[in-house]
């Protein structure tokens, strides 16, 4: 099992303590998208109503592959001037060292998920088919992306497990701007005492 499957039963108990029956609505990004998916799937199996499942620009971890190193480098170096490249050298060295440490950890532990960026929670998650409708919010503006080294289809690989249908909503902002807006919204609600 993945960490998602380990966390969901505890969350189900907490959710049903506050709201014993649906309709339920879930939205998540990154690992939160995986948790939202699994919560909705399990509640539906229990006969509860889930009105909405939203995924904020998060790929299905089982539906993409890493680009070849040559293509990754070409993408990263495209359009850079030499002086810009020299400014990036320290961060490139740090990323290379982190990658090398993950490879060493993986070799020592036998856990190949550590060779990929991201957390074990995300890479170990295998979404089971969900019969409800899912809404994928996909950012359309270029910007910093955690996924620039990965080959991903426009539906982020969710069309196969979303057996009840997948609606794609294009959001005209970058992924970084979307998550900054989510963080600002959460901070505002925390300050107002409505969350946290």
Shape: globular
Q: Strand share of the residues?
A: 5-15%
Q: Determine the fraction of residues in helical runs and give it as a percent range.
A: 40-55%
Structural class of the secondary elements? alpha/beta
Q: Tell me the series of helices and strands, N- to C-terminal.
A: HEHEEHHHEEEH
Number of strands: 6
N→C terminal distance: 29 Å
Rg estimate, integer Å: 19 Å
Low-confidence stretches: 112-118
Number of helices: 6
Q: Order the strands across the largest sheet as they lie in space.
A: 1-2-4-6
The description of the largest β-sheet is: 4 strands, parallel
Gist?
With 196 residues, this protein is of the alpha/beta class.
Based on the model shown, name its key terms:
single chain; 196 residues; alpha/beta; 4-stranded parallel β-sheet; globular
Structure notes:
This protein has helices at about 5-20, 30-45, 70-75, 80-110, 120-125, 175-190; strands at about 25-30, 50-55, 65, 135-140, 150, 165-170. It has about 200 residues and is α/β, with parallel strands linked by helices. The strands form two sheets. A four-stranded parallel β-sheet has the order 1-2-4-6, covered by helices on one side. A two-stranded antiparallel sheet has the order 3-5. α2 (about 30-45) links the parallel β1 and β2. The model is unreliable at about 110-120 (pLDDT under 50).
